[in-house]
Write a structure and sequence with these properties.
By secondary structure, the chain is of the alpha/beta class. It has a single domain (4-133), classed as Nucleotidyltransferase, domain 5, CATH 3.30.420. Helices cover 37% and strands 25% of the residues. It is built from four helices and five strands. The chain has helices at residues 50-53, 57-77, 93-103, 121-133, and strands at residues 4-9, 13-20, 23-30, 84-89, 110-115. Strands 3-2-1-4-5 form a five-stranded mixed β-sheet, with helices on both faces. Helix 3 links the parallel strand 4 and strand 5. It is globular, with a radius of gyration of 18 Å.
Length: 134
Amino acid sequence: MKPKVGMWIDHKKAIVVTVNDKGEEMQEILSDVETQPRRSGDSPMKGHYESRQVPADDRRQNNFTGQINIYYDAVISSIDDAEAVLIFGPGQAKDELRERLQSRNLNGLAIVMETVDKMTEPQIAAKIHDYFAK
């Protein structure tokens, strides 16, 4: 039997639960994504030099994109040969991950999406267990 995977995900962390013949395995994947990059240098800034201390928007966006790609690759590697994936969470991360999974063309992988708020690890495991028990 191929494993079934459920995950709660946002931009900071993913809780991945793999259900297979042997039972359930839970894994936490943390991201290094910094959504609000900090200014370098002294604070508070004074004078006309403040703009030199703040990175350009495109550089910040490129940094964010690079970090989020590494994070999503780590999450995708945790669902290697899954038969079905349940992805749920509060924000955009679940949609971004689904797009990334679909672009990889993972041979008939069934992907189900749900929007939920923050959950504890036991709640996440119970939701995934109940979903795949159907």
